[in-house]
Amino acid sequence: MNVCMRATFKCTWEEMIARLEHNMSTISAAHTGWTVAKESDHSLVFLANITDFSALSEPMMNEEQVQWDKNNGVEYIAYTMQPMGG
Q1: What is the DSSP code string of 37-81?
Q2: Which backbone phi and psi does 25 adopt, to 5 degrees?
Q3: pTM of this prediction?
């Protein structure tokens, strides 16, 4: 996994996961896998192996997604990751 993102949100857990599943399905060629860990009813940690970062930016930054995030109080902090050791 090369991306870690923490998200907080005001919508329900189910709404957030449904939106995330939808977004990731639209860019299935841009990743080789992803998973989510539930921190609380209103926060999560997302891990993914992204192979095409430009394809990822379209569903995350388009006008509809930006408005959805705003309407649902979503805030993201994203990190890149690299494997440790050799």
Answers
A1: EEEETTEEEEEEEES-HHHHHHHHHSHHHHHHHHHTT-EEEEEE-
A2: -70, -25
A3: 0.86
